[in-house]
Amino acid sequence: MPKVPTDPESAPAPFQLTALDREILSQTDEEYISHDWENLKDIIATNSLHLFKRKPSDLANYISWSTAIKSLYGTITNYICLERLRWPLNLDPATQCVDPTPFADSRDYRILRNDWPYGVTPDISHLVVWVKNAIPVDEQTGGDLTPESRTSIDEFVHRTFVVRLEEEFPDAKARVMWFKNWTALQSVRSLEHIHVLVRGVPDEIIFEWTGEPARKLSDPTVGLENAPIPTPVV
């Protein structure tokens, strides 16, 4: 297993740290206040997505992990395509999508657990839907979704997540939220994805959606368990 640095201050960060990131890194996990469901609802409803944050230890480990992954694979996108999605690099939606419409064919997207979720309360699970298709955004608004894209995602989330939960819970719709970071906030910009948050959902159902068990958090070697040490991709 490749060695992963444990001190995020010992080397340049693999991405630009925000003022909020630096504030979080100055805290202990005991001082950190987790996002609860109501707080998440407010952030998403007001589109204040820059306020999402990770637990201090998770953020420090995420920085170290990102540094290690980039040294091994060149980019986070390369790692995700090769190791998590098993999709080809340099994905071309025009030739490699079964259906040109986003979310229309299950072979064109994959649902996974977020390896590095935001710092939420334990009742909340954070999933990511990776999509081969391009999802139209409005560049005039900093890369926010177009109304048509928002409707398309709403419909996908309803039929994929809400309908399944309706089999178990009378308040299924209230247990699901989604968001898509503006382009400027995305850590993996070249690979389309949306975030889905679910509350109080048994892990068995999470497994149905993702096909993978829960992964240990606060571990800078997540995703590196079986990683080779290849020549860095440039």
Short description:
The chain is an alpha+beta fold.
Describe this structure in words.
The structure is a single chain. It contains seven helices and six strands, in the order H-H-H-H-H-E-E-E-E-H-E-E-H. The protein is an alpha+beta fold. It has one domain. Strand 3 (137-138) and strand 4 form a beta hairpin. The two termini are 21 Å apart. 26% of the residues are buried. Residues 1-6 and 228-234 have low confidence and may be disordered.
Terminal CA distance reads: 21 Å
Number of domains: 1
Q: Kindly estimate the percentage of residues that lie in beta strands according to DSSP.
A: 5-15%
SSE order:
HHHHHEEEEHEEH
Reported for the largest beta sheet, the result is: 4 strands, antiparallel
User: What is the number of strand segments?
Assistant: 6
Low-pLDDT stretches are 1-6, 228-234
Which radius of gyration do the C-alpha atoms yield?
Answer: 18 Å
**Class by SSE composition:** alpha+beta
Helicity, in percent? 25-40%
Number of helices: 7
The global form is globular
**Widest sheet: strand order?**
1-2-6-5
If you average the pLDDT, what whole number results? 86
